[in-house]
Amino acid sequence: MLIPIGHDQQTVRRLPWVSLVIIGLNILVFLLSYGVARRVEEEGVRHLRQAIEYWQEHPYLEFPEALVALAVPPGERNKFRTMVEALRGAGVDVDAEKREEEQLRLNQMARAVLEAHQQHPYLSFGLVPAHIRVLGFLTSMFMHGGWLHLLSNMFILFLAGPPVEDAYGRPGFAALYLVSGVVASLAHIARFPDSESALIGASGALAGVMGAFLVRCGQTKIRFFYWWFLRGGTFDAPAWLILPLWLLQQIFYGTLTKGEGGVAYWAHVGGFVFGVLAAGVVKWFKLEERYVHPKIEAEITLQQHPALVEGLELLARGEVEPARASLARAIAAEPANPDAHLAMWQSYLQGEEPLHGVDEMVKVIEIELKKGELGLALDHWRELVAHTGLGGPAPLRFRLASQLAEAGRVEAAEVFRHLAEDAEAGLLADKARRRLGLPETPAATGGVAQAPPPTEGWGGATGAEAKPVPTEAPVPPPEEPPPVTPGSLWVETSSLERLEEAGVVLRDAAGVSEVLLYSLVDAVAVGGIAGGAKPYLVVDLVVGFATERRRVFRIPSTTMDPRQVLGWFDARPLEAFQEVVRRIVEASAATLLPGPEAIAKLRMFDSLAEFEAEVYGIERP
Question: Are residues 403 and 529 located together in one domain of the fold?
Fold first, then answer.
């Protein structure tokens, strides 16, 4: 016994509600039809038993041909008819009038059997090749012959459906499922055109989904449970191996099966082949990359206000005042957008007047605290203190410290200490001192409590881990980057989070995310670094390449999963990495370095210094 129980392609970008709706509809239809089917079957069996018993008592009567199709297997019908003729000629002498009366009664019993049979929901809503109804192509997909039939099909749909739906989109997946079911039915009809048996079940449509899964997610590892001679266990096997073997099995059993009853093997074959062909067309014409993927990303990706995009672009060009005007419009339209306030804060930093931007950073911290983003709130608070010596309103600092303490974060002591040292914080300063275990009425420091020396405390952390703010003087702002000389670089190592329509979303070393607009990228450099413990790839996004102040956003391959960025979960990492670089170069119309073939033929360098010397013509010490 071999049963699939899972695979490594479980992560999807959106709720696969088409797959879930199909599963729900199948279950609902089964619950509504199962009781009716059992009742009709019981009634039909009772009428059939009565007819057969009556005929056995009167074997000289002609057995109704309609009952032969219902009661006798196809391979036994000729033999049964021969037996009936032999019994009729056994020499039983019955009055002609009585024989006619008895034959009429047997025919009536046969009609009762047929009427019960015609009321069966499988015949009403299934697909009978000998009596095709167009609606039956659809309704037959939602009918199942029993709990095992239903649950096995729905489990396979639950495994294979979500990743295919995530790749092809909801409308595309729904179309694939329904058309695969129709094609599967046509394959069965072509094999058994005169069959009186109803074709029911979702397996034909599921076979189409499995065929698409093979093409789209062929590298996926499927986990199986096996049971063999009282021993069981699990093992993993790739989809590209297992699914073709399953198809060959269906063809083999379909070739052996001569009758139309039982499993519809050729429906499985037809649906699977169609799924493979449909997925092949999608892949050949890159329909997923051109249409489906951008639409899904647009739905799940935050779209920034146009005024914010314009402000960021102006700010990057050094046009601070026009940038502030655009950012002010963005803030007026979206006052709760932290990115807009952060951009305005950056404009004040760039204009060397950080004290004017305190309110903007305070607003950012307040928004992040409401969202529960404590890490970001703490980072931005530290940035505010570093540039201004101020930590924002006392209530804000107390709330930040309290939430950090509730979360078990040792950094809470840092914020409480900053508040405790603020002579203007009043009662909140006293509360902060109590939380730190300091005296509430400082005497020797002119009303300001001195920070205690680093000790074991706050959540088991040392004072060094808590990173207290010195009390002797405000924390000085960080040093500006050294003056840029011709041929030098200002490199910032970042991680790539995602690609958006306007630019790339990068996260810096402090965990802050920002959008680098494609319009600002002049050049893209790519290569491999072979030196060190493990080789890796690197992408440089260069702003101001033709100027003396070249700014490089460096993205090592170790900081991102290109398959996650693209949604290509079954692709090879190198293939996905090359596609990410290609999209950035196309969207930015940037110069590709060290040459136009850099993506297709990645060059390896012994070190970053060699890479920079080759690409930028500089020599680092």
Answer: no
Q: What is the DSSP string of 410-429?
A: TTHHHHHHHHHT-TT-THHH
Give yes or no for residue 181 having a pLDDT over 70.
yes
Q: Which pTM does this prediction carry?
A: 0.55
Residue 143 structure tokens:
């009918």
DSSP code at position 483: P
Inter-residue contact 315 to 347 (CB < 8 Å) = yes
- Parent domain of 608: 489-616
Nearest to 440 by CA among 452, 430, 426: 430
| Residue 612 domain-assigned (yes or no) | yes
Task: Give me the pLDDT at residue 441, please.
Answer: 46
| Confidence band, pLDDT 50/70/90 cuts, at residue 443 | very low
551-557: list long-range contacts, CB under 8 Å, 24+ apart: 551/489, 551/490, 551/492, 552/489, 552/490, 552/491, 552/492, 553/492, 553/494, 553/506, 553/516, 554/491, 554/492, 554/493, 554/494, 555/493, 555/494, 555/495, 555/496, 555/506, 556/493
CA distance 10 to 277: 24
146, 94: one domain: no
Residues 115 and 158 in one domain: no
Instruction: Judge whether 447 lies within some domain.
Output: no
Torsion of CA 491, 496, 501, 502, to 10 degrees: -20
Distance of CA 432 to the CA centre of its chain: 45
Instruction: Give the whole-angstrom CA distance, residue 325 versus residue 323.
Output: 5
Please report which confidence band the pLDDT of residue 195 belongs to, taking 50, 70 and 90 as the band edges.
confident
Is position 76 within any domain?
A: yes
Query: 184 or 290, which is more confident?
Result: 184
Report pLDDT digits (tens) over 262-306: 789 999 999 999 999 999 999 999 999 888 988 887 776 656 788
50: enclosing H helix or E strand: helix 17-57
Angstrom distance (rounded) from CA 188 to CA 179: 14
Mean pLDDT of the residues in the chain: 84
Residue with tokens 């995530």: 166
**CATH code where residue 228 lies:** 1.20.1540
